[in-house]
């Protein structure tokens, strides 16, 4: 489950300094509204942070500033690991496509290995698909330009 939370200074301080690290939720597996008596299936009715969870051995939630937002975001550690893994796999997709295009241009394995290292380091800072695509396009153009310039300097034997 994900939620967009607008944190107040008091909320940030409660998590950071006062130990409010566990989520306590109220839900209904088959919620029935009071107005029309209709059922809606599973519904989260409310949630709050607590210092001592009723369900023991819950993973604590933490504040993360890696979202690029001005205020920290509450994110569960397992969700953070999952999202990071998905982002890395997504960026790897762009790198593999770049390497395939360069291999089709018959560049040497040494060049491909160097571009792979550069791409891995550079893609680590990309946060969107558009950034990753632009970076890979730029890497491809520069690699081809450098390879052509090197080939012109070193005559074939």
Describe this structure in words.
This is Mu-like prophage I protein. The structure is a single chain. This protein is of the alpha+beta class and 157 residues long. The protein folds into two domains: 9-75, no CATH class; 82-152, no CATH class. It is built from four helices and four strands. It has a two-stranded antiparallel sheet. The longest helix has 28 residues, at 77-104. The chain is elongated, with a radius of gyration of 25 Å. The N and C termini lie far apart (62 Å).
Main β-sheet, spatial strand arrangement: 1-2
**Main sheet properties:** 2 strands, antiparallel
Radius of gyration: 25 Å
- Content-based structural category: alpha+beta
Whole-number mean pLDDT? 81
Task: Please name the defining characteristics of this protein.
48% helix, alpha+beta, two-stranded antiparallel sheet, elongated, 4 strands, single chain
């Amino acid at each position: 489950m994900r939620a967009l939370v607008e944190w107040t200074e008091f909320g940030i301080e409660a998590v950071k300094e006062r130990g409010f690290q566990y989520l306590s939720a109220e839900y209904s597996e088959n919620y029935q509204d009071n107005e029309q008596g209709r059922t809606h299936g599973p519904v989260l009715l409310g949630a709050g942070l607590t210092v001592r969870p009723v369900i023991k051995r819950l993973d604590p939630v933490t504040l993360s500033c890696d979202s690029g937002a001005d205020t920290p975001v509450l994110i569960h550690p397992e969700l953070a690991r999952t999202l990071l893994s998905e982002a890395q796999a997504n960026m790897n997709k762009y790198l593999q496509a770049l390497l395939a295009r360069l291999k089709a241009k018959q560049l040497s394995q040494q060049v491909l290995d160097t571009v792979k290292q550069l791409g891995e380091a550079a893609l680590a800072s990309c946060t969107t698909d558009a950034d990753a695509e632009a970076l890979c396009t730029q890497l491809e153009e520069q690699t081809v330009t450098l390879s052509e310039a090197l080939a012109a300097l070193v005559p074939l034997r």
